[in-house]
Amino acid sequence: MKKKKLRFGKGFRVVRGNRASQAAEMVIAPGDAEGGADNRHRGADQWLFVVSGTGEAIVRGRRHRLSAGSLVFIRRREKHQVRNTGRALLRTLNFYVPPAYKMNGDPLPRGRK
What is the reported pTM? Predict the structure, then answer.
């Protein structure tokens, strides 16, 4: 078993992973967003769980409201963006299957672990 205390500092940070999956924390300031029109994970599915805050996930052009307790599944290759629409920080815990990022946060090439 491996254990990690999450900090939820600003930005995106990979916190733990192995060859099969990966966890990352993401904190978005009010009015800010992560991702964009071309953002997608070509080789990994993403589960996004909202720990606190409010926002929206735009997946394949459709808007979905987010609040604490929301769980979103984003399939590999689906274009998406996550925006903070509230007044407080939007904190999310993200899981990628298989891993989508190097430990320093740089994206992995498609199909690489």
Answer: 0.92
